[in-house]
Amino acid sequence: MKKRKVFRLRYVLMIALGLFIAYNVSHALLTKETATGPSSGETAVTPSPSPVPTANEPEKKPEKSARPDPTPTPDPTRKPDPTPDPTATPDPTPTPQTTKAPQGGGTANTASPIYSISTKNKLVALTFDDGPDLHWTPQVLEVLSKYNAKATFFLVGRQVDKYPDMVKRIVDEGHAVGNHTWSHAQLPKLTPEQAREQMTSTDEALKKVLGKGTYLFRAPYGAVNDNVKAVAAQQGQLIIGWSIDTKDWAGSTPDQIMNNVKQHIHPGSIILQHSFGGKGGDLSNTVEATRRICEYLQAQGYQFVTVPELLAAK
């Protein structure tokens, strides 16, 4: 009985010793692990505890992470205004116009045709329409050269196209040239677009030959209406009429032409004659009348000038 009690006491002591040893070993291992951290290759993650709502506070939803506002896309229909140049002056709205003639002088007045000018100087402008050609135009030029008289030739575009060398001779001898439409058309019977084509085609022909056009324009037959005036203004053309019609085109004799001139001449006059065409294609009356006009008016103290020179004398 005594031995059984001793055995039980030993058994209890052994169990107690085992528990003590196990406790110490476990405590040592736990202390080492805490000091050295997690084993290599593992990352310690500490979960964030979800907030527990209180009884008096409603549960809060997690806030979204803040993002920067995106850069606004520029409106494609609007562009930023450039910084104005303080020295720049805005250009005025340009007035449509063709190249001015090489003769210079004169300011465009497209409100109505110019038939003559008012001046105290004894100046007169001889003008010749419908050319050039190779027969009558050279004869007229010879007379003008003999008297050192300058004139203005209103040329038809298709004639310019045929005889470019004669156009050059006219200018080389100091005379002025003007636009007399492409085909000697009656402009009031045309549409504005057709009238414009008559003017621009002739101006282009002159540019092709001379390298420059003209701002002088004379309507065939002197026929103009509001549409023709408007087109001429848009093209920068100055409409030139006449104050003395010699009617050489109708076959007037040199004597009849001279009487007409003597009755109507005054300082600033514009005299109409022709260098192509005529009644039956004959302009011998013009050639002779030009010689007499030059002699007579020079004797009266008149000076023969081009239309641009006459306009400049206003």
TrEMBL record:
<keyword id="KW-0378">Hydrolase</keyword>
<keyword id="KW-0479">Metal-binding</keyword>
<dbReference type="InterPro" id="IPR050248">
    <property type="entry name" value="Polysacc_deacetylase_ArnD"/>
</dbReference>
<feature type="compositionally biased region" description="Pro residues">
    <location>
        <begin position="83"/>
        <end position="95"/>
    </location>
</feature>
<feature type="region of interest" description="Disordered">
    <location>
        <begin position="35"/>
        <end position="113"/>
    </location>
</feature>
<protein>
    <submittedName>
        <fullName>Polysaccharide deacetylase family protein</fullName>
    </submittedName>
</protein>
<feature type="domain" description="NodB homology">
    <location>
        <begin position="122"/>
        <end position="305"/>
    </location>
</feature>
<dbReference type="InterPro" id="IPR002509">
    <property type="entry name" value="NODB_dom"/>
</dbReference>
<feature type="compositionally biased region" description="Basic and acidic residues">
    <location>
        <begin position="57"/>
        <end position="67"/>
    </location>
</feature>
<dbReference type="Pfam" id="PF01522">
    <property type="entry name" value="Polysacc_deac_1"/>
</dbReference>
<dbReference type="InterPro" id="IPR011330">
    <property type="entry name" value="Glyco_hydro/deAcase_b/a-brl"/>
</dbReference>
